Amino acid sequence: MTTPDDASASRFSQADLGNALAQCLAYTADIPWGSGPVLFALVPTALLARQVPDLVDPDDGSALSPVVQETTTADLESLLSTVAWPDQVVGCAVVTEITVLPPDAESDLDAALEPLLADPSAADEAGRRAALAHPDRQAARLAGGVLRTGSRVALLSLRDGDRQSADLQTHPELAPNLLDALAATMGA
């Protein structure tokens, strides 16, 4: 049985959310590159420890525990448009692969997109093709997470050979569209 305090997202900080996202990226570090997005429910660790004690290490001091969700689609937009969370889930996160380009690649993308701006789908596809063909592209995993309170964080881990880098990067303006889509799944 949950208590009102168990599922109160207001007691979790931005740092708690960032730590949960780092755990999500640690989980995906062993997943092969080219895999689909991985969706997580963020549940208070104390609640999980009481309800399913075998799942939580007694020494786990984290405030939030990511719980992997089984999904049937690799299409992130479709996935996020069909998700609903029970009250015990105080937040959610997703890890997905992206292509990162250097700032000077913007003119290359503009050249690919401009002739197709009247057709957003064609422009998106042309942008993807141009990004994947760019000689300075770099693969990365993007982790985005939100809490019911509106807190949001995005972390980026660049690909390093066949592994994902342990160095995590963030920025206040990283992945706003992804964070908005995640917030929408929380009813925000």
Description of the structure:
With 188 residues, this protein is α+β, with helices and mostly antiparallel strands. It folds into two domains: 9-99 and 139-185, no CATH class; 102-136, no CATH class. It contains six helices and six strands, in the order αβαβαβααβββα. The protein has helices spanning 14-28, 45-51, 76-81, 106-113, 120-133, 176-185, and strands at 38-44, 64-69, 91-100, 138-147, 152-160, 163-164. A six-stranded antiparallel beta sheet has the order 2-1-3-4-5-6. The longest helix is centred in the first third of the chain and has 15 residues, at 14-28. It is globular and about 55 Å long. The protein starts with 13 loop residues before the first helix and ends with a helix. Residues 1-6 have low confidence and may be disordered.
Strand content: 15-25%
Q: What is Rg?
A: 18 Å
- Major beta sheet, strand line-up: 2-1-3-4-5-6
Cα shape:
globular
Query: DSSP helix count?
Result: 6
Sheet with most strands: 6 strands, antiparallel
Number of strands: 6
**How far apart, in Å, are the first and last alpha carbons?**
25 Å
Which spans of ≥5 residues are poorly predicted at pLDDT below 50?
Answer: 1-6
Structural class: alpha+beta
Helix content: 25-40%
Mean pLDDT score, rounded? 85
H/E element order: HEHEHEHHEEEH
Number of domains: 2
